[in-house]
Write a structure and sequence with these properties.
The protein has about 450 residues and is an alpha+beta fold. The chain contains 11 helices and 18 strands.
Length: about 450
């Protein structure tokens, strides 16, 4: 029997995604561990590996939006024949792969609607997944095409028309990207095709030199236009609620509707923490660069060991105290907010936490987070101190029981008798689910976090 290829589910909150690119052609051989397809969701783009050797049979085309767990294809063992009429069992929303379309005759092409510029206005080209795939196969650079689809979108017929032009030869840019085995993320590959960028000329800044979106944003486009500016919305414009923004809106609203959230603040004396961090920056030079958030992460991990009810999940009939302590770290990206997870944080040293949090933050902003990086969070930390925030009310990342907000370090006052003393202080903002934990236990937990930060050398034990 053939082995199903599923659309991989990334984290508990994924509701839809697509195969943005098949790395193994329909009917071609694949070996276990080779890249099979590129997964694209509202939060993450990643490569999915084959789980066995065999021949690959696609049942959906790239670009079709599906639910996690839907079957997108099959792998047949080498000694297992593929029936000629095999279509498999795919999601009703999925388009079954058909035979390649023949190039449109010249008369039909000339009768197409007048093409318009496919520039989206932000430096990117609008094109359908099928058009991108065909352009990649034929070596056509999308940057040189005008789109005849809705709103100037480049469609398959536009790519086919380009091949009929006198003197056509496979575009060097696209052909180089196809033929060379370039270490690039799926998103970077797609953007390179859209912008007409030769990936072989790009130096990657991701892990192991992997080319990521940030590298392409710094590269000139094939047409000579500047790379798209990362500008925010302007007055009078509208911002579509879709992708990551839609997911965040739905989840935050659901969190407030389905739980009893309360919040409180406490102030930690940070003089010793400031001194400790300065010493560690010198001691770990070149190995790790601890932040104040890293100190808070370690303090929270130790406090959760002492107060296990805060590391729990509320269900209708029971409250489950979780064995693992996995810290979600909210990271801001241009599209919204990602929450990668530091797993087993209570068993890590402060140096290991600093290294892992730096890795996750960099990967989140580069778009290279993997499946395991999102999995299993039991408590979340959100830091806004770098924006000068002194207090805020973070919203719980369901189904967790609590989330801690990290505010800015500021100059405060303490007293020695009647004498005021200038000190470094930090407010911590805790939001918790009152269904799981009452106010007094929540305050005791937050007091423990404050105590660890006020006596930071205990974080090294």
């Amino acid at each position: 029997m053939p082995r199903e290829i599923y659309l991989v589910k990334v984290g508990m909150t994924m509701t839809e995604g697509m195969v943005s690119e098949w790395f193994i052609a329909d009917g071609a051989k694949v070996k276990k561990g080779e890249m099979l397809y590129a997964l694209e969701t509202e939060k993450v783009n990643l490569d999915v590996d084959a789980e066995m050797d065999g021949f690959v049979k696609h049942t959906v085309e790239a670009g079709v939006m599906l639910a996690p767990g839907d079957v997108v294809g099959y792998i047949f063992a080498f000694d297992e024949p593929i029936p000629a009429d095999f279509a498999g069992v795919a999601s009703p929303a999925a388009a079954v792969v058909a035979a390649p379309k023949a190039a449109a005759p010249a008369a039909a092409v000339s009768a197409m609607p007048e093409p318009v510029t496919a520039d989206s206005g932000d430096g990117r080209l609008k094109s359908s997944p099928a058009a991108r795939r065909l352009a990649s196969e034929l070596g056509v650079a999308l940057a040189g095409l005008a789109g005849s689809g809705p709103g100037g979108r480049i469609v398959e017929a536009d790519v086919q028309q380009a091949t009929l032009q006198p003197g056509f030869s496979a575009g060097a840019v696209s052909q180089a990207n196809v033929e060379m085995k370039i270490n690039a993320s799926p998103l970077a590959r797609r953007l390179a095709t859209e912008r007409g960028i030769d990936l072989s000329q790009i130096k990657g800044s991701g892990p192991q030199g992997r080319i990521v979106q940030a590298d392409l944003d710094q590269a000139p486009l094939a047409s000579g236009r500047a790379a798209p500016a990362q500008a925010g919305p302007t007055a009078g414009s509208s911002v579509p609620v879709r992708g990551m923004r839609k997911t965040i809106a739905q989840r935050m609203h659901q969190s407030l509707q389905t739980s009893a959230q309360l919040s409180m603040d406490m102030t930690a004396q940070m003089d010793d923490a400031v001194r400790l961090r300065g010493q560690l920056l010198k001691e770990w030079d070149g190995e790790a660069r601890p932040t104040y958030t890293d100190l808070v992460i370690k303090a929270v991990a130790k406090a959760l060991v002492q107060h296990p009810m805060m590391n729990s999940r509320f269900d209708d009939t029971e409250i489950t105290l979780l064995r693992e302590i996995n810290m979600g770290l909210a990271v801001s990206v241009p599209e919204g907010l990602l929450v990668p997870v530091i797993r087993g944080v209570h068993e890590l040293s402060l140096k290991q936490i600093a290294q892992e949090s730096a890795r996750l933050a960099a990967a989140a902003r580069a778009g290279t987070l993997g499946l395991d990086d999102y999995a299993g969070g039991t408590f979340t930390i959100s830091a806004l101190g770098m924006f000068g925030v002194n207090s805020f009310t973070p919203i719980i990342n369901q189904p967790q029981t609590g989330i801690l907000g990290v505010n800015q370090l500021f100059d405060g006052l303490s007293w020695e008798g009647d004498k005021p003393i200038k000190t470094k202080q930090m407010n911590l903002s805790l939001t918790w689910d009152h269904r799981s934990v009452d106010g007094a236990p929540a305050a005791e937990f937050l007091a423990s976090v404050v105590e660890f930060l006020s006596e930071p050398y205990r974080l090294l034990l």
